[in-house]
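Exercise 4. Each item below gives a protein and its sequence. For each, produce the structure-token representation.

Item: PGPIL protein (Mionectes macconnelli).
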Amino acid sequence: LQLPVVYQKAKEQVVKIWTTLQPLLTVHVGLASSTTLIILEQCGKNKGYQDRDACGFHPEGACCVLDGPEKIESAINMKTLQKSISVEGIDIIFSRDAGRYVCDYTYYTSLYYGSGRAAFIHVPPLSKSVTADFLGKALQTIILAMLEQCGVDHI
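Answer:
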């Protein structure tokens, strides 16, 4: 499911995922155009959304959920994950700041409605060294490790 770079639409889709599918874990993947790394995001932040989205809007009160907690941590320990996996050809790092834009907004919303059972991975743009096939295999490795942390056997 591809989410638009629009706060409200992204929120609607994330809420729909949690209310209709009720997944064990939701993994979101976003483009970080200025990186060459894969970035595992640990938490989502509720406030600070001043930048306007693709439609020219920003959230009311510059926050995701009125009266929601300041930040929500993922149930997945991203630092442990980052230390335990490797993908040849690309570095994987850990982050506690998903950027206060639609990616972070989406992540916080998913963590809120999923009670922490969400993950967010920032990926670099496709290039000669980072092909769609390469990135897909890297994401598969990462997501399988996340599921192991959740106590799920390989699918």
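Check: Residues 7-149 form a domain with the Aminopeptidase fold (CATH 3.40.630.20).
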